[in-house]
User: What shape does this take?
Amino acid sequence: MLVLGIESSCDETSVAVIRDGKEVLANIILSQNEHSKFGGVVPEVASRTHLKTIIPIYEEALEKASVTLSEIDLIAATMGPGLVGPLLVGLTFAKGLAYANSIPFVGVNHMEGHLSANYLTHDDLDAHHLSLIVSGGHTMLLEVKSFGEYELLGNTKDDAAGEAYDKVAKIMGLGYPGGAVLDKLAQDGDSSYMKFPRAMIHDKSYMFSYSGLKTAVSLHIKSLSDDDFKHNKANIAASFQEAAIEVLVEKTLRAAKEKQISHIAFAGGVAANSRIRSMFSERIRGNQKVFYPPISLCTDNAAMIATAGYFRYKKDGPSELITNAVPYLKMV
Ligand code: KG4
Ligand code: ZN
Assistant: This one.
């Protein structure tokens, strides 16, 4: 079954063609860099850029996959959560294509898309597993019983982990979005330079909190002279990173132990982080196994949306063409 996937929930315009939820024939991603000068995503600019780029990207995806629209069996598009204008561009384009060509359509939850990036890459992931989804807008720990059957164990009380990365990167003058740049800088630093707070690490719940960490880093930077800041940039990045990642890893491993679940998958933009990967590998024990997508499938992309669409369609059939964008769409 050939699925055309469309993603436009924030500042990536992406179109993919996937065979049977597993094989990536094309996954074209355009990251809009119009936003960096504003220090964050400007919804109106994002919508207009999606409008300008979606058709050329769609054409490029079909060409790269060497397929024509008449061969596509299903069209899947992100319907939420995300920015309403950007969502509407991809969703309306997808529904129009589906209607005009009598192809079934399915609306996809963006977070289920992130989760599905692991289905796309790992055949050996147990149906019953833990999924930690960490992105610019979400920090969610889920017990996945099977595709579509989720129990929310915890999420963030305030900022998402990726948001904390972006804010700290901005304070440090690393640009926007700063997660990947901060990660790279941290690799040259000493994480024992400063013990920043690990919020809620000893709390019995699986809730997270990132606003205090961001404030602690900001206050520390303000206390330094320009010279001290310059000399310790990598150390600050490494110390922040260690605190941000340790809470994620510790709480996920505690949930895995308490619930006796051995397969742990993580996804979303922050899953691209080098330290989350190394810390999980250092701390897993016994029969525990960690799964994560390749970096290109961690950050927003349409391949994960096509895969989620494939599994959703198999479970529930097509969505109606009146499906609308839902900016705060929930997963559970
Ligand atoms: O999943 P994603 O592409 O978009 C959302 O759905 O939000 O995640 C983007 C987030 C941004 O906050 C970005 O800074 C962060 O993922 N990110 C990283 C890394 N690469 C991207 N954070 C930490 N380390 C990275 N290597
Ligand atoms: Zn995302």
In short: The pocket of KG4 (ligand 1) is lined by residues 10, 135-137, 162, 165-166, 177-180, 183, 268-270, 272-273, 299-300 (CB under 6 Å). The chain has two domains: 2-114+297-316, 127-294. The radius of gyration is 20 Å.
